[in-house]
Design a protein that fits this description.
- The structure is a homodimer of 601-residue chains.
- Chain A has 601 residues and is of the alpha+beta class.
- Among the domains of chain A are: 147 residues, Acyl-CoA dehydrogenase/oxidase, N-terminal domain (Butyryl-Coa Dehydrogenase, subunit A, domain 1); 124 residues, Butyryl-CoA Dehydrogenase, subunit A, domain 2 (Beta Barrel), CATH 2.40.110.20; 148 residues.
- In chain A, strands 4-5-12-7-6 form a five-stranded mixed β-barrel. A two-stranded antiparallel sheet of chain A has the order 1-2. In chain A, strands 8-9 form a two-stranded antiparallel sheet.
- In chain A, strand 4 and strand 5 form a beta hairpin.
- In chain A, helix 10 packs across helix 18 and helix 13 packs across helix 18.
- The first copy, chain A, starts with 6 loop residues before the first helix and ends in a 16-residue tail after the last helix.
- In chain A, 59% of the residues are buried.
- At the A-B interface, helix 10, helix 11, helix 12, helix 13 and helix 17 of A face helix 10, helix 11, helix 12, helix 13 and helix 17 of B.
């Protein structure tokens, strides 16, 4: 079995770096202990080994495909969805009262991370089903929960989110899909939805779409959008399923994640499509943001998972492939020793450490965001604090693993040379698969606008201040450890760069020059994302150092030393690039506003 | 017809920035003038429009494929090769006496750039044929030239370079393919060769392989490698073609450039394969380097060409697609104006200018290297000077367009959002195609070793000194123009960074710590590549500024202003990242040597 993730590292991050056992003291989670959680994750790992990884390449080679009105997916999907229901991963973080396991989201994300590293074409089916079910449970009338959610958590029915339309992708204010109120309180839905992940396939007994539409007469823009439950099959009074006029018009063939179907759906072409309003009218986007925020963490997780799998694939190759000679004094090649394993070449090691630094840092960030989420919902007395931190981290947790994950996989492919480009080797598939992550659920540009244009300014800067205080807290801790003092200082030196950059930008926002203010938001995201992951690496370093000093033999000394080494790698090679980036953002030269007389040509 | 390159920009770079007409004064090229060259390029552009671009997507969807002992390629390839022969592009830069047009290589590269932007799956066939023919003409006995070259330049026969073997990719010293001398002066060839681009296909009347092998008893390592002509079909005394025991064992299915076949060839499995020695025994690698150096420029050109095509595809989309709103004061969206074209969003403009800055800068660099090549072979009195410059630029010209071209295409794909990931749109194909460029003909790691470990040290630093003097010359020119003074100064400020970095590195080399010396060679390549392209942009800026000041109406003022604007974009967003990179290289912390007790795990 190919290695695609490392359980020891995952354990170390969850229980040592992020102190999951402290979270388990909260009432909501106190049915679990470390042992039961590790058992759960091991069962997910076994399932991933046995059911997910073996069909990964096949799903790419025989992609999900639309023909004769249906989307055909890999034949194992049916069993896999049911098994995921049985394992409890679909309802992992749901309340027990709703049929879930009531696990921390942190554990749910860890489980999905394992499954996605094994086969990123599959977990989306369950993930969106859970997200849709969660929306119903949270905001819809209880009767809808009872009608739909149990069958969704069991894996028999699927769920989706239906946002994009042909004319409205990132711009949700232009949604045209309409909802006409009927006398019985239901609505007649009409419109097209595109890019619907898991939108239709032959193995779902029913598909429950959570759909954004505009009720006739609703206000223009995002304020007039409502959320509806629109099942593929309606439940008739006698409990049989009847067609609900949801037609699959086609699919999207993609460069990657080809086994994961993407549908074009037509609702109400025969004026027979019923939708059930979720919550109140015109509050659809507000509700949908719950699902979108969760989905954003999930997308980052997908990026980290693919980067993990690519790392282990390229590491294995580097440990087996001989090529070239070690270099001796004067640049002579060590002909006496003969060909060397390529892992001995400094540039190959650089590419390996870069991947490791990116994927483990990303994974740690995902767990960090999930911990904040779990604390927010389980510690009522302090939940605003955790919410502020999660708000700040969400766009970064979506973007860093997606963007830097591409870089990581690119380096993994490069290690294989010509073989990396060949279909017989798996790296090229990871390379194609991961490319969607910086587009899904709001592109990097959109996330960067959210970070700089919204989160930084939110609550008069309180969100940012709270985040920086957390980072400063870790820095102070790091400074007390001889081995980490220099690293902590390097992170501390970044904070004035952020301040100086904002001192440059905020006055521009104040003057009302919004486009200019956000014009380099993507660079701001790049630099701040690196700081946040450097913070995670310092946390990892502090933990590794502490465990090394203790008599805790749960982890090998070599693993812990490698964590400290990779931390230094991240600081030397990645964090050190930030200074120039912040300087670019502080430049007064404006080159990308449409007002310029210059234009791309 | 889709735009995939810009003839005005190409003309501007060739004739204005790189002053091609001055080169044409040299005796070798004086049969040509600007007009005849533009006619030639226009005929190549027409051919590209009519024959190459229309089958670009189809070649990806129905890749070249091995079955029943043969590799099947697109059926139009046969005609296309013949047409390329008729157009003269295969023999474009060959001496007239050898059946070529005796055009400057600069013009040949411009022609291939156009063809590759139209369809990068095709020009490799002609390019390698020309390269193989050139090796024969340069180093083999005249009789071989007469036997093979005319049919190669006409497009009837193909040529390849056969270097890699299953156990020897980048490490040519481990080549095992053997050559046994026969009494008639020919050799019996035996061995496997892999990754042979254009290695076999049904439409070549014959395929002339230029193959590296080891003559029995030759010294170990690269000093014992000889070069052979090994035709697929031997020419018998009665001029008929007879099988030469070259068997196609299979092909490589790839992530990109799928229409361009890649073969696994077996030579002499029945001990019937004849090879003809080129030049002297054991000097094979020296000869092959002529072809490899040319091929390295060609790979960079391929990267620039794909980046060009991706740029124009994403530009067209950005000019047609409406999405989102302009941002008004206070971050409000301009609802009154309604949806805007996405080209008006600063982040989209940033992605467009980034692509333009990378592709035009890369194209200029390719032309610069070609001009040096042309001067080297046409100005005997000063050819060492031009050779030194070309030596320095070759690894950069290969690497910068390949590596930064990936970044450019990545940004092009991102502009299309979800559509960019879909097979119906062309960006994803460019994204896959360009990925091979940083692997072909020596990976980025190998090129970086060449730059830092060889070129920088070569002739006691004379190569580097000569290069820096050229750059300084442009800086001095730029400083005399008010509009360019600041830009020139920014470039000048980079030179002490190079010096400081080398002052750090050279003593390490002197101490004999070669692995440590080159451990960050790839970062050195990244930063120096950016300086070299910044130098090209300053040249472009100087020329644009001069043309704007003159009464020359050959180019529109808006095009010239956009060049100046894009130059500033490159300096603000790309060159400004260098300072941090040089600082990283100067760090004393060593993290990637195999001697460390830490290792990737």
């Amino acid at each position: 079995m190919a290695a695609y993730f490392n359980m020891e590292t995952l354990k170390f991050l969850m229980f040592n770096v992020h102190k999951l056992e402290e979270l388990l003291l909260n009432e909501r989670y106190n049915a679990f202990d470390k042992e039961s959680i590790l058992l759960f994750l091991q069962s997910v790992a076994d399932f991933s080994d046995q059911d997910l990884y073996p069909i990964f390449k096949e799903m790419d080679e025989k992609p999900a495909k639309f023909s004769e009105g249906k989307i055909h997916v890999h034949p194992k999907i049916k069993d896999i969805l049911i098994k995921q229901g049985e394992l409890g991963v679909i309802g992992a973080s749901f309340d027990e009262s709703m049929g879930g396991l009531q696990l921390p989201a942190t554990v749910m994300h860890a489980a999905y991370f394992i499954m996605e590293a094994a086969n990123n074409h599959i977990p989306g089916y369950a993930g969106l089903t859970a997200g849709a079910a969660h929306l119903i449970s949270s905001f819809a009338d209880k009767k809808y929960h009872d009608q739909y959610v149990p069958n969704m958590l069991s894996g028999e029915w699927s769920g989706t989110m239906c946002l994009s339309e042909p004319q409205a992708g990132s711009g949700l204010s232009d949604i045209k899909c309409s909802a006409k109120p009927l006398d019985d309180g239901t609505f007649l839905i009409k419109g097209h939805k595109i890019f619907i992940s898991g939108g239709d396939h032959e193995y779902a007994g029913n598909i429950i779409h959570l759909l954004l539409a505009r009720i006739e007469g609703a206000p223009a823009g995002t304020k007039g959008i409502s959320l509806f439950i629109v099942p593929k099959y309606k439940i008739s009074p006698d409990q049989t399923l009847v067609n609900n006029d949801v037609i699959t018009a086609g699919d999207f063939q993609k460069m990657g994640q080809r086994g994961y179907c993407t549908a074009h759906l037509v609702f109400g072409d025969n004026d027979q499509c019923t939708g059930y309003l979720v919550g109140e009218e015109n509050k659809g986007l507000l509700y949908m943001f719950q699902m979108m925020n969760d989905a954003r963490i999930a997308v980052g997780r997908g990026g980290a998972a693919i980067a993990s799998a690519a790392y282990y694939a390229s590491l294995q190759y580097a440990q087996e492939r001989q090529q070239g000679r070690r270099l001796l004094s004067g640049g002579r090649k060590d002909e006496a020793a003969g060909p060397t394993l390529i892992i001995n070449h400094p540039d190959v090691r650089r590419m390996l450490f870069l991947q490791k630094a990116i994927y483990e840092g990303s994974l740690s960030l995902i767990l960090q965001s999930s911990i904040y989420h779990d604390r927010e919902i389980s510690e009522k007395e302090n939940n605003n604090h955790w919410n502020l931190l999660l708000e700040f981290l969400t766009p970064i947790t979506k973007t860093y693993p997606s963007e830097k994950g591409k870089l990581a996989v690119d380096n993994g492919l490069q290690i294989l040379g010509g073989y990396g480009f060949c279909a017989d080797f798996i790296l090229q598939q990871y390379y194609r698969d991961i490319r969607i992550m910086s587009i899904y659920e709001g592109t990097t540009g959109i996330q960067s606008l959210d970070l700089l244009g919204r989160k930084v300014l939110m609550e008069n800067g309180l969100v940012l201040k709270t985040m920086l205080a957390e980072i400063q807290h870790t820095i102070s801790e790091g400074k007390m450890d001889e081995r980490l003092r220099a690293t902590a200082k390097e992170l501390e030196d970044q904070l004035p760069l952020v301040e100086a950059t904002l001192a440059h930008l905020i006055p521009i926002a104040m003057k009302g020059e919004t486009e200019k203010f956000v014009s380099d938001a993507t660079l701001f995201m790049e630099a701040v994302g690196t700081i946040v992951v450097a913070w995670q690496w310092l946390k990892i370093g502090i933990t590794a150092s502490n465990v090394l000093k203790s008599s805790d033999a749960a982890f090998s000394a070599s693993m812990l030393k490698n964590k400290l080494h990779t931390m230094r790698f991240f600081y030397k090679y990645e964090l050190a690039r930030n200074k120039s980036i912040f300087k670019i953002i502080q430049s007064d030269e404006v080159l990308t506003l449409a007002e310029d007389d210059a234009f791309p040509d």
